[in-house]
Amino acid sequence: MRIGHGYDVHRFGDPLPPDGVIMLGGVAVPAARGLVAHSDGDVLLHALCDALLGAAALGDIGHHFPDTDPAFEGADSARLLEATVAAVRRAGFVPHNVDLTLVAQRPRVAAHVPAMRARIAALLGLALGAVNVKATTTEGLGAVGREEGIAAYAVALLEDAHA
């Protein structure tokens, strides 16, 4: 078994897309402001990519999908996660379970958590019971508390694919 930890943060600032949503956990969530990002800015999936890559000792998301590469501009983070899972599998590991925490004052996401869990489970090829998503605030403290952005943490457990 291998464990990895991931973290990501994106600040608010970009204009909100015309559909009025941001991507969180692979799900479109209504929001008042957009996120500054080279890709679609899905902090939850980015943290998960880092956790999976870390558990497999494969570096980090910036190494695999650099924000200096125009190929990843506006990229769908679900596709980045799929590529990450493929790299993890090539390294001889498979995801066992994941636990993710979204930290945001706004938007409120509790109603979207079941859809996030289902989407992430599908992307990882896991049973729903192997994927946990939590959402919390910082009680108004810090940059996230001042609604300057959104952060996410992820923990991933991998197992040897050949065991």
Polypeptide structure, described:
The chain is α+β, with helices and mostly antiparallel strands and 163 residues long. The protein has five helices and six strands. The chain has helices at 43-55, 61-64, 77-90, 113-124, 142-145, and strands at residues 2-11, 21-24, 27-30, 93-103, 131-136, 149-160. Strands 1-6-4-5 form a four-stranded mixed β-sheet. It has a two-stranded antiparallel ribbon with strand order 2-3. A hairpin with a 2-residue loop joins strand 2 (21-24) and strand 3. The protein is globular, with a radius of gyration of 15 Å.
Name the strands of the widest sheet in spatial order.
1-6-4-5
Multimeric state of these chains?
single chain
Number of helices: 5
Identify the overall geometry: globular
For the sheet with most strands, the description reads: 4 strands, mixed
Q: Provide the residue-averaged pLDDT.
A: 94
Q: Spans with pLDDT under 50 lasting ≥5 residues?
A: none
Class based on secondary structure composition and strand pairing: alpha+beta
Helix content: 25-40%
- Distance, first to last CA: 10 Å
Strand content: 25-35%
Number of strands: 6
**Secondary-structure element sequence?**
EEEHHHEHEHE
